[in-house]
Amino acid sequence: MRDLLPDQVRRWLADLPPLWRDGPPAMLRGLAVGLLAITLNPVLFVLSVVSLALIPAAGLGFAAFPVVTSVVRWRVNLSRRLAAGSGVPIAVPYLPTPTDASYGKWERFRHIVRDPATWKDFAWLIPGALAGGVCGLLAALLPLYGLEGILGIPIFLTMILDWYGYGIFWPIDNAFEAVLTIPQGALFLAIGLAGARWLTWIEATFASFFLRPNASANLAQRVHQLTVTRAETVDAQAAELRRIERDLHDGAQARLVSLSMSLGLAEELLRNDLEQAAALLAEARQSSGEALRDLRDLVRGIHPPVLAERGLDGAVRALALAVPLHVSVDVDLPGRPPAPVESAAYFAVAEILTNVAKHSHASTAWVRLTHRDGRLAIQVGDNGHGGADPANGSGLRGIERRLAAFDGIMSVSSPPGGPTVVIMELPCELSSPRTSPSSGTA
């Protein structure tokens, strides 16, 4: 919810005391939790029971129960998002849906029924309605009651009725009562805002006992993730091999063929036309130099020598110097990552900086590399016009595939108008510790 606010408003909220910074969002979160719990949970529980009852009766449950389950999962995922805002993240435990399991088919029904998370969601609906209704509404109504006391809304309404002659049964000293309600309302408001965070945390913790994945669900998700990662890695390796083959065929191989033809013609002309033979030999020497340059470029595309010699720090600084805009580089790595991870990180930064130079219309960019808690964190940003989307660009999608081979992740923040920030993380351990990290500007 707070992520939707402008940056200036978020900075202003960050400077507030914890009670006023975290209390109102917790109150709104509690209101959402309570209203969803008392309205949707009982309805979805009844629909689930009815759809299950229709299975032996008319057979309609085979088609209805998966549909109802999808709505239940949508509702449960809303609770997961609200719980994450309360500081209790709950992972999604659902098994991957088979590609041929569309709605109305037996495969879909069997998949839904065999998923343990289906029944955990069903078991949570009524207890979740009770816990969410009590904790959520109490978290919202207690601060609102205090706010009502500060504003003196009922007292002032009574005074207005007295003025118009409708409050003949109310006491005359309403103004004095309104003043007395202000400190009482302030006390209830402070207690309510402080308790809202605690109450929403209790509700989220209670929900996590039902909704968090068990060991089998974690294992199934991990197997699915590794299967997808392996397929993407194989595709990426095949594409890389095709690129190398294409570069060899169109570059060095073509130049070597031209070199061979020039040398053959020069050999024939040596007997009759020395001047023409010398020209062909000069052309052959030029072709050999160009072929050597193509081979060096190809080697750099596979594993750059600067990466092997100077490590990720020096290689990223060399990339920054080659970009036609000001790029600041800040590196805090007390050692070197493993060679495959180092190569993946280097090419990811190179691809993003290339996109910045080509498409962002930025004047400055920055690269930050750090290592914390066993993860290599890379941040690349620019002050361009934004609008970068991995779904619409093969470059960013290729980076995701490259990082996925190492269980890495990437997130892109690029609103229209900028700035663009790409954050990547790769799990790894560092070796060859150095005495001091380096940082600077390239």
From TrEMBL:
Sequence ranges assigned to domain Putative sensor in this UniProt record: 28-210
Pfam families: HATPase_c, HisKA_3, Sensor
Catalyzed reactions: ATP + protein L-histidine = ADP + protein N-phospho-L-histidine
Record's keyword annotation contains Kinase: yes
Residues in Histidine kinase/HSP90-like ATPase domain copies: 344-428
Top-rank lineage group of the source organism: Bacteria
Documented EC number(s): 2.7.13.3
TM ranges: 26-47, 53-72, 122-145, 151-172, 179-199
All residue ranges annotated as the Signal transduction histidine kinase subgroup 3 dimerisation and phosphoacceptor domain in the record: 240-307
Keywords, comma-separated and alphabetical: ATP-binding, Kinase, Membrane, Nucleotide-binding, Phosphoprotein, Transferase, Transmembrane, Transmembrane helix, Two-component regulatory system
Entries under InterPro entries matching the protein: HATPase_C_sf (IPR036890), HATPase_dom (IPR003594), Put_sensor_dom (IPR025828), Sensor_HK_TwoCompSys (IPR050482), Sig_transdc_His_kin_sub3_dim/P (IPR011712)
Protein name according to UniProt: histidine kinase
Taxonomic source organism: Luedemannella flava
